[in-house]
Amino acid sequence: MAGRLEGKVAFITGGARGQGRAHALAMAKEGADIIVIDICRNIESNPYPLSTPDDLAEVEREVKALGRRVFARIADVRERHELRDALEAGVADMGKLDIVVANAGILPMAFGKEFDPMHFVDATDVDLLGVMNTVAVSLPHLPDGASVIITGSTAGMIKGTSDNPMMGPGGAGYGWSKRVLIDYVDHLCLQVAPKMIRVNAMHPTNVNTHLLHNDGIYSVFRPDMTAEGKKPTREDAEPAFAYFNAMPIPYVEPEDIANLAVFLASEESRYITGQHIRVDAGSMLKWPNGPGR
């Protein structure tokens, strides 16, 4: 029995680990060949290490082990020329492009450092401009009926989360970028609808990735401990993670987001466009006016 994405080619940014890796593997399991890029180096304002060349090579090996073709390249979504060169090389190798997953994102809180307005720039360059660059280099290659999938954020929708003053300029930039992407999806889907291209956004709650598991996020979720001069651990933060959601879980897994991406990439969603789908364990409905309000 053919997979749901048999014969399709997917382009995934930020694909060396976390949600991006989960997208690459889930789509490969459903029959897609994969073009995957990642920055594979750190950004100074980011409080957790980003992917490495070894991470990207491992994803390449995993996709091949599933019997699918893969083209992997190091590229920075902030640099449109890098992204264009990588995608054009990938399309030349694969012969086509059907699916775009604009997934790359950071939360540059620069924990333990003095806040700097450039952290806002770093966040918006990756989380907003990086998405727009991904779409810009992809559109010329997309046939009628293609699917564009953008990663948003439930936290970005909820006041008092990423725009919490403890998060600094980087948190503000993250939240603003994710909110702007909502409007971007609404407008972009209308521009490409005549070609039957659909554009949708996925908005996760906390996800079990490096973006969540770092000292900065632990401190934001446990300000009581930070105020006492203590350094919260993952074990300290997980009850607060669970309190954020309506369902009694601390976070969802990257595969939970990838399951939605596969659906949005498949012909099962051929008339679904302009949608904002939350995989949020009920957090948005639990905190419609922000945490604690």
TrEMBL record:
Please list the GO terms describing molecular function: oxidoreductase activity, acting on NAD(P)H, oxygen as acceptor
Q: Which domain of life is it from?
A: Bacteria
UniProt KW keywords: NAD, Oxidoreductase
PANTHER family attached to this UniProt entry: BENZIL REDUCTASE, CHAIN DEHYDROGENASE, PUTATIVE (AFU_ORTHOLOGUE AFUA_4G08710)-RELATED
| Name the record gives this protein | 3-ketoacyl-ACP reductase
Describe the family membership recorded for this protein in Swiss-Prot or TrEMBL: Belongs to the short-chain dehydrogenases/reductases (SDR) family.
